[in-house]
């Protein structure tokens, strides 16, 4: 692999450049991009030029840099989550239409929940999830469902890592988490009132393919006395999606 | 930029590797990947190792190579089409629920229509579009809508390129295309019975942001006497989405 004078490969530097972009920073100046990627300006300019030539990056009318449509196309058309997303979307759409609250789909990736799809309702309750965003497994309802069905090894690593609390309701203590995970497996869904934000309740169900849990589908609804009633349509939608996945 | 002995950059070779994957070839052996990317096996192995280390690629349980979840995450979370897709999805979901046929969203990219979202109905009519798939502008209803609202320069280039016919109904002749594009601008939608496949009718409407056409939303319905009736809900959904985009 070709390397820079300090031994870093071109691929490493290209990934650092791509990683500088995020949901809140979709358009960056060359200097801001270099600063975030921790690369000299000349190196940044050279790499951006090369990556733009291939459509991995793009320049807008003010010469600011953004992720290229071609980068999205290369990642998406053979994406490992494409099938899951495409099968799930109609079920998520139905659920969203029936309950009128944000609906999301998350998968386990590198010890976190990675959200691969989300449908939002305008004016809905606060929801910290984003498409291609991540949350810790212990904090979110989708994460708890994935953790409840994960390997013993991963479960013990999460429990040993002393997970952080978002609110006073976050399950951040080992025994409470263990009890909740057993409850999720028994009950068939995770119910998390105020675990991430006091105003919101997360609810999530497992999504199975050939019997194995491959994702979690969730709702974010207001944290009130009615929140519990949304578990029924969510469980039904989860069963329907699992059936469609086979 | 670091270059191989034949002067090709690492980025160029990495893009060739990513480009070897597609909707029909999401999992490749190392040798098949090298063959498709037109790279020596040793170069392919070295690049795959490096790209896998960064999560751009992944290896499955049989050591076959696939696009990595991290690649998808880097492309998606700051994607230039993310906002459009996320705003469009609930409207597409409503439309899909009401009409019960495949619903898709396409944008103009490099003189083609690139489909950024699709909702499919099981058992629906034949539909050649795919998420992150492309179609020529003249052949698809979404492409015709985008072409009808594109610059004069692009329109003349497409007309000059002697577009290919998929069926005997494809508009592959200059004057017929010009007449149709004017009709689409006047009527507000494209109606394409049997243009791509004899059994399917594509219908598409423009999606506007600040008055400018930024995408086309379409339906694929059976090619029969009722096809025309689907234009009404589609036009309504297009207006609603354009209003939401502002």
UniProtKB/TrEMBL annotation, chains A, B:
<dbReference type="InterPro" id="IPR029016">
    <property type="entry name" value="GAF-like_dom_sf"/>
</dbReference>
<dbReference type="InterPro" id="IPR005471">
    <property type="entry name" value="Tscrpt_reg_IclR_N"/>
</dbReference>
<dbReference type="InterPro" id="IPR050707">
    <property type="entry name" value="HTH_MetabolicPath_Reg"/>
</dbReference>
<dbReference type="Pfam" id="PF09339">
    <property type="entry name" value="HTH_IclR"/>
</dbReference>
<dbReference type="InterPro" id="IPR036390">
    <property type="entry name" value="WH_DNA-bd_sf"/>
</dbReference>
<feature type="domain" description="HTH iclR-type">
    <location>
        <begin position="8"/>
        <end position="69"/>
    </location>
</feature>
<dbReference type="InterPro" id="IPR036388">
    <property type="entry name" value="WH-like_DNA-bd_sf"/>
</dbReference>
<dbReference type="Pfam" id="PF01614">
    <property type="entry name" value="IclR_C"/>
</dbReference>
<protein>
    <submittedName>
        <fullName>IclR family transcriptional regulator</fullName>
    </submittedName>
</protein>
<dbReference type="InterPro" id="IPR014757">
    <property type="entry name" value="Tscrpt_reg_IclR_C"/>
</dbReference>
<keyword id="KW-0238">DNA-binding</keyword>
<feature type="domain" description="IclR-ED">
    <location>
        <begin position="70"/>
        <end position="246"/>
    </location>
</feature>
<keyword id="KW-0805">Transcription regulation</keyword>
<keyword id="KW-0804">Transcription</keyword>
């Amino acid at each position: 692999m070709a390397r820079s004078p300090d031994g870093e490969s071109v691929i490493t530097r290209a990934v650092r450049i791509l990683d500088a972009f995020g949901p809140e920073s979709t358009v960056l100046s060359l200097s801001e991009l270099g600063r975030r990627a921790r690369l000299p300006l000349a190196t940044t300019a050279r790499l951006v030029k090369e990556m733009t030539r291939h459509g991995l990056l793009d320049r807008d009318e003010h010469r600011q840099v953004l992720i290229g449509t071609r980068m999205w196309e290369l990642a998406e058309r053979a994406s490992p989550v494409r099938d899951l997303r495409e099968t799930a979307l109609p079920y998520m759409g139905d659920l969203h239409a029936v309950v009128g609250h944000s609906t999301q789909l998350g998968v386990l990736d590198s010890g976190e929940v990675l959200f691969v799809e989300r449908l939002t309702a305008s004016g809905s309750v606060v929801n910290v999830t984003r498409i291609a965003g991540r949350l810790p497994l212990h904090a979110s309802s989708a994460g708890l469902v994935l953790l409840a069905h994960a390997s013993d090894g991963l479960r013990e690593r999460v429990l040993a890592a002393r997970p952080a609390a978002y609110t006073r309701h976050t399950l951040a203590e080992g025994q409470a988490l263990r009890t909740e995970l057993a409850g999720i497996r028994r009950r068939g869904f995770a119910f998390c009132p105020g675990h991430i934000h006091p105003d919101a309740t997360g609810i999530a169900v497992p999504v199975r393919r050939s019997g194995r849990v491959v994702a979690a589908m969730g709702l974010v609804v207001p944290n009130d006395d009615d929140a519990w009633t949304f578990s029924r349509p969510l469980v039904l939608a989860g069963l329907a999606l699992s059936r469609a996945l086979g």
